[in-house]
User: Which sequence fits this backbone?
């Protein structure tokens, strides 16, 4: 698979992951959309195959992190969050 194809595939995958992870959170959806587009735009003139591979690796790592580590919750009072699966109480 060529590098251009990998870059386009990563771009699409990041946006799909963004839509799943931040579902029903318009602020987070928009912020993630802007950041993804900004990062790809900032690096669109890169020509070094080695640097492009590094950027693809970073993007893939970010996608994995989003998919596996982001937890959304609802703040119910000053020290309680309700997530999609459990309730987490914070201590201060």
Assistant:
């Amino acid at each position: 698979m060529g590098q251009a194809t990998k870059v386009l595939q990563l771009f699409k995958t990041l946006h799909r992951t963004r839509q799943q992870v931040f579902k029903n959170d318009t602020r987070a959806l928009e912020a993630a959309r802007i950041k993804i587009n900004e990062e790809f735009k900032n690096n669109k003139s890169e020509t070094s195959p080695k640097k492009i591979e590094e950027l693809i690796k970073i993007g893939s790592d970010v996608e994995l992190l989003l998919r596996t580590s982001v937890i959304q919750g609802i703040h119910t009072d000053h020290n309680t969050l309700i997530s999609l699966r459990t309730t987490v109480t914070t201590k201060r």
